[in-house]
Amino acid sequence: MTVALDPAHSRPITLYVTGDEADIRLDRWFRRHFPWITQGAIQKLCRTGQIRADGKRVDAATRLVPGQAMRVPPLPAQPVKKISAPTAPPDPSALKDLERAVIYRDEQVIVLNKPPGLPVQGGPGITKHLDGMLDALRFGSDQRPRLVHRLDRDTSGVLVLARTPGVAAKLAAAFRTREVEKTYWAVVAGRPVPVEGRIDMPLKRAGGPRGEHTVPAARDDKEGARAVTDFQTLDHAAQKLAWLELKPLTGRTHQLRVHCVAIGAPILGDVKYAEPDQNGAGSAIVEGLPEQLHLHARALRLPHPAGGFLEVEAELPAHMRETFATLGFIAPDAKPPRRLYQ
Question: What separation in angstroms does the CA of 326 have from each of 80, 145, 282, 306?
Answer without folding.
Answer: 57, 38, 18, 43
